[in-house]
Please model this.
Amino acid sequence: MKIPGLFEKVGSLGTIVSAMGCPMCFPFLASLGASLGLGVFSAFEGLFINKLIPIFAIIVLVSNIFAWVSHRQHVRLIWGLLGPVMVLATLYLFWTDFWSTYMFYAGLLLMVIVSIWNMVLPPSRSCMSVNKKEIVNESKITCPNCGYQKTEKLPTDSCQWFYECENCNIILKPKKWDCCVFCSYGDIKCPTMQQPDGLCCEI
Model:
């Protein structure tokens, strides 16, 4: 489990457990918490409502943003942000409105659904998912030691760090700041760098 996903689940669980300690604000969750033996938390309702719930919701919010940087799935990002935004909006914008509690419950439900979604179908980013028709799958690599050239198939699921020249047997390594040998010595960069944003895929 990657770090953003772990924090997202911790934040979701923390928000729900904290809400279970707020019988005056969220009686439904508090009664559920009491049935699970968490009724003792009601003595800390002020701490939960003012500190812990916002902190956990912000953790979920930030975790989903960081996860999006890797997978770039916009629909998943929107659903991932909607839950914690609804929770925070309940606490800071619509607290006095009679319907705000229902929005809070809906936000919690969305956070749970997105967490389950991310566990069952983890977000991933395929190297061929962006501009698939524009990706070139072969590159002519030139040995800087002897000048020998050979056209090689580009890997689509990883970055190749080492390449042995068939002519002089020297082992090529990427230049500084390059992600692979094809980006350093090939006439065509690897599929990862052929994408518009030039970001390495999540493997």
Q: What stands out?
A: The radius of gyration is 25 Å. Residues 126-131 have pLDDT under 50 and may be disordered.
